[in-house]
Amino acid sequence: MKIGILTLPLHTNYGGILQAYALQTVLERMGHEVKVINRNTDYKLPLWKTPLVYSKRIIKNILGYKIPLFYEQKLIKEQPIIRQNTDRFIQRYIHTLNVDNYSDLKAEDFDAIVVGSDQVWRPKYFGKIEDAYLQFAKDWNIKRIAYAASFGTAEWEYTDRQTAICKDLIKKFDAVSVREDSGKELCKKYFGVDAEHLLDPTMLLEKEDYIRLFENSGTSQSPGTLMCYILDETPEKQSVINRIAREKDLIPFRVNSKVENYKAPLVERIQPPVEQWIRGFYDAEFVVTDSFHACVFSILFNKPFIAISNKGRGESRFQSLLKLFDLDNRIIELPPKTNKLTVDIDVFFGNINSLKRLYIKKSISFIGENLHND
What we know:
The chain is an alpha/beta fold and 374 residues long. It has helices spanning 14-29, 50-62, 71-82, 84-93, 123-126, 160-170, 181-191, 207-216, 235-248, 274-283, 292-300, 315-324, 349-372; strands at 2-6, 33-39, 96-99, 112-115, 143-149, 175-178, 196-197, 226-229, 252-254, 286-289, 305-308, 331-332. Strand 1 (2-6), helix 1 (14-29) and strand 2 form a beta-alpha-beta unit.
């Protein structure tokens, strides 16, 4: 079958890139021809927005916020530099079909479209959320499957109009699955649809699949033993890192840049290679993170970890994942309410790996059965 994967645009986010790579790999191993539909990022301001946006920026600069007046031009110039390493991975390993608009896609190019995974059903991340439910393909005669799609949060963020449109569109799907248990509840409550709870695509591959990626690229060993992957840095999170490093006699190292900080020097915003990020889990003795996918890869690589609650990026994602593997005690609030931050969980990984195998079997069966069920 000719299958398109509809997910969030690929850029510098390691988890977003690897979940697309993993789902593509699974489908290809089933014998399908796969393209990841990648919407090109348009950094230009619509003409009708320009006067209002520029006026707001001028006011903010007067107030001392130092917002670049011509921010879009800055993005166009800097993004190819910031993305040079992640773009190289995407070009090498992901078979993309790049489009400016989803309306550019043609029905004859697909037998099926799989929507997911990542926070593809979160309006503030996707843009025109109706297209995440295949509005552009509503009249096509194709298979429509949602695989581990995520709302990103347990809260409902759709307008009444979006809810009504997406409710009609999702009824056209042959099968619906979500990545979080809260997603099942949201689908039932707002769409009247029963969804299955399945694994993030990255968990469908074995750690050996990821090891091959950094071995093939000749990636150098990580410069420490305590991997720190923090998306939203704060003094409180740094305090947790320092405490764990001291208690376990580990050397902290980071694998991400200041990619989202436009005030930082450009050289500090260049995102390291995807392979370096993966190697970080292989080399680490312990992981500290506020990232969902860093929790996933800690589990994949059987590494003890602490997940710092990150409500701004969707806390329910962490809770659902860790609950699935009976790792609820890995998530902490700030400031920590316990003195035992570094309780080793090595002894539990045998059970965790057994559970993972069961969930993988269920997830792979969902994909295979619904693609071929006529």
